From TrEMBL, chains A, B:
All copies of domain Toprim, residue ranges: 81-176
GO molecular function, one term: DNA binding
InterPro entries named in the record: DNA_Rcmb_RecR, Rcmb_RecR, Rcmb_RecR_Znf, TOPRIM_dom, TOPRIM_RecR
Keywords: DNA damage, DNA recombination, DNA repair, Metal-binding, Zinc, Zinc-finger
Gene3D superfamilies referenced in this protein's UniProt entry, alphabetically: 3.40.1360.10, 6.10.250.240, RecR Domain 1
GO BP annotations listed: DNA recombination; DNA repair
Protein's job: May play a role in DNA repair. It seems to be involved in an RecBC-independent recombinational process of DNA repair. It may act with RecF and RecO.
SMART domains: TOPRIM
Assigned protein family: Belongs to the RecR family.
A family per Pfam: RecR_HhH
Protein name per UniProt: Recombination protein RecR
Zinc finger (C4-type): 57-72
Amino acid sequence: MKLTSGVSQLVEALRCLPGIGPKSAQRIAFHLLEHDRDGGRQLGQSLTFAMENIGHCKSCRTFCESEQCDICLSAKRQDSGLICVVESPTDILAIEQTGQFQGRYFVLMGHLSPLDGIGPMELGLDIFEQQLRSGAVEEVILATNPTVEGETTAHFIADMCAKHDVSASRIAHGVPVGGELDLVDGMTLSHAFSGRKKVN
Amino acid sequence: MKLTSGVSQLVEALRCLPGIGPKSAQRIAFHLLEHDRDGGRQLGQSLTFAMENIGHCKSCRTFCESEQCDICLSAKRQDSGLICVVESPTDILAIEQTGQFQGRYFVLMGHLSPLDGIGPMELGLDIFEQQLRSGAVEEVILATNPTVEGETTAHFIADMCAKHDVSASRIAHGVPVGGELDLVDGMTLSHAFSGRKKVN
């Protein structure tokens, strides 16, 4: 095939994007070269900047290019005494969109997975334990994913909270609002039954 | 929403990619930051290099970082006296994959579209006319897309070839190999009928 090295290098590099196969990579490369050189240039700069400069917030471990993220710096959120533990920074975005939660976060960047060598240290739970020990935390809300690994991780953190006399709660699992009962899987339904609430 | 400026800049920049909406851009940004910094860095460099250095081949106008592309430099292809006119560099890739065509190409980078201000000069047809005038071209194969604009462009170039006494041909249109008749659109079918060949 006759692609010059610069073009084929670009096509190859684009394949690192998740969900982009060889055909899409080619289409994207030609689109940028033909119609959007400024966009491509801008993307190149943003990528280089982000990969070099974005690190983790020292308190909550989310992505952030300064030492602490805006949420951790907010005095109001610090005073709330609430910490919500999530698996990834995208979970923060989803929760922030509801506008319901006014506390701080702690991002694990994964879940416990001993077979892959991911233990408490890899999830930054030493930093989290320091925060529990400081006495500024009143309640920990465990919002890890409702998978086996997520549940295990939540359980582990709940034990840690108990050791430091901090109350911990798990977000509710059940039938999604607007969902239909016959389309919901059995696991979710049994969660919905065991977590039922009295109404009168 | 609480994305730091570096991250949100990256998400915004990723949206210049065709087919990438806000959700996908976010997913890609977090994927690169979390799991593939090297890939992201490499992509940033390739993009910056490509956007700055890739220009057009001076003979065929395809993308190329040197003055002339490999196909135009090949003596064998130059001797063939064949030029295939296509609308975009991706068409070259498709034709090269068949391995059938051993001549050179000329890439229009679009089609005639007077309302958008795209005339013969914008398609580089002045360069093409020089090549016709040089006498090195025996036959021009018109492989523009079978759309109204593509047909008009092909017609225009055919007239240009006639003026310089160079024979021109149009690639065949009809039912695709392996296609089923009842799934083929009417336009293609009528092309297939008017372009029928005698078999005995």
